[in-house]
């Protein structure tokens, strides 16, 4: 019989393995689609003078102007952000799911989460993970869109210092509100649809548990979940990026108003002005490369997470 101390030690070991798996999943999935991620952001913040018009044209333009290294600009910072973000997000989802499952069992249920409960747990996990690392995302967004030939920021610490000194500490949280609103359907649907699809397939095919699912099936479930979540949340992602570069002179070539960098008063002002000046379609700028990106990105993240956990011997699984 294990003592309480041994049980706590085992629990922390499993949590540590889960955090590591989440971090690896985030780094691998984002690096795999880094050029498309940068293209999406560049398309989101540009105004009516379009430099990037599509996936192929935008990718070619980036390659000609910035080279291979330029196509991955900001990916190092993205990985620094996404490793703790994904680790916290996956762990939060697992812990919330376990708490809800135990509550259902204590009240006479079978402990199985409904699609709505999975979506709610996923949404909460997304808000926690995003909020914990938001300043890194804001700084990464600035570095990603700055001109290659005339960069204002030399790196993470230089950019952070400049932003705080010139715009104030709260500038690091610019765009947080639309991010919170957008992350609820995005991450909620990611987890909810992914877990529900796996559960349906397992029951339909008469399998024992999720370990009997092939990697191809898991990739398909992850891709569908990511596509649904991203479509609903995308306008909020566009507004978030625009608020992050609001009033910043380094973005004026991408988002200009009579030669001056556009400054928004807040989320609703950004929504209204974007639609009024550029049309409703502006809220979906960059959606094409994002679709190309999100399918492999979300799928790779889920599958990598589960595979790394199996390699590490972690007992906590998404479906537990």
UniProtKB/TrEMBL annotation:
Residue stretches of each Solcar repeat: 13-99, 113-200, 213-311
Q: Which UniProt keywords apply?
A: Calcium, Membrane, Metal-binding, Mitochondrion, Mitochondrion inner membrane, Repeat, Transmembrane, Transmembrane helix, Transport
Quick check: keyword Transmembrane helix in the entry?
yes
- One Pfam match, given by its short name, reads Mito_carr
The places in or outside the cell where this protein is found are:
Mitochondrion inner membrane
Q: Which InterPro entries match?
A: MCP, MCP_dom_sf, MCP_transmembrane
Q: Please give, as recorded in its UniProt entry, the membrane topology of this protein.
A: Multi-pass membrane protein
Cellular component terms per the entry's GO annotation: mitochondrial inner membrane
Task: Please give the biological process terms from Gene Ontology that the record holds.
Answer: transmembrane transport
GO terms of molecular function: metal ion binding
Q: Which family does it belong to?
A: Belongs to the mitochondrial carrier (TC 2.A.29) family.
Query: Could you tell me what this protein is called?
Result: Mitochondrial carrier protein
| Organism annotation | Chlorella variabilis
